[in-house]
Specification:
This is GntR family transcriptional regulator. The protein is mostly helical. It has helices at residues 5-18, 29-36, 40-53, 71-95, 98-117, 120-137, 141-157, 166-182, 185-200, and strands spanning 56-59, 63-66, 158-160, 203-205.
């Protein structure tokens, strides 16, 4: 059975985000095919996709390598998210379905419950699920794709501190859902902008492992189809 290139792409991307492959390290088709138990064809397709997303670069005489983002590129991601998350919330207020609302309200309920009980280990995954669902509720495939890629890249470049007051964070989530449920696009946008701004303050640039580095030079990274 042929393994889809999309599945291979997801596996490689997850491993890059998790730090399995160090920044600047080579990604050879042969070794990747062996690691994931596939042929080189889906690996080659996956590397092209990851290069378009900015996780991989192609270097002369070296081939595919893990990208080495600059500090400015990392900062840009947070700025872009601060623009797109509120847009997504506003569109969700106009396009959400009852199914979206049911999931969002359920997540807020769980998040508030876990906050009261001090079960912080669950809150990060619940928060990610909340923002993914909110993006889906926007009904905009292009925006959903951009936000998904942003989440992956931000998780790769940043460590996120747990909120000092998680109950307040989930109260903000709840207020966003209330605005979305009422169809109040401007209030949903304003609340999401405030929430995203506060969340951004908890992000700390990851310190690369030994042998890695976050580039500080402003030379362009050699990527194809670079966005975000």
């Amino acid at each position: 059975m042929r393994i889809p290139a999309q599945s291979v792409c997801t596996a490689i991307r997850d491993d890059i985000v998790a730090g399995v492959y160090e920044r600047g390290g080579r990604l050879t088709e042969e070794l990747l095919a062996r690691r994931y138990g596939v042929s080189r064809v889906p690996v080659r397709e996956a590397l092209r996709t990851l290069e378009a997303e900015g996780f991989v670069v192609t270097r002369r005489h070296a081939g595919a390598c893990v990208a080495e983002p600059t500090e400015r590129e990392a900062a840009d991601l947070l700025e872009i998210r601060m623009l797109l998350e509120p847009m997504g919330a506003a569109r969700a207020a106009q396009r959400r379905t009852e199914a979206h609302l049911k999931v969002l309200r359920g997540l807020v309920r769980l998040g508030q419950e876990r906050s009261r009980r001090g079960q912080s280990e669950d809150l990060r995954s619940l928060g990610s699920w909340f923002h993914e669902t909110l993006a889906q509720a926007s009904g905009s495939p292009g925006l959903i794709t951009l936000l998904t890629q942003l989440r992956h890249k931000i998780a790769w470049m940043y460590a996120v501190e747990s909120p000092a007051r998680p109950a307040e964070s989930w109260a903000e989530h709840g207020a966003i859902v209330d605005a979305v449920a009422r169809g109040d696009a401007e209030r949903a946008r304003a609340l999401a902008a405030l929430h995203t701004e506060r969340a951004t303050a908890a992000h700390r640039l990851r310190v690369p492992r030994a042998g890695e580095r976050v580039r500080t030079s402003q030379h362009a990274v050699n990527t194809v189809g670079r966005q975000v």
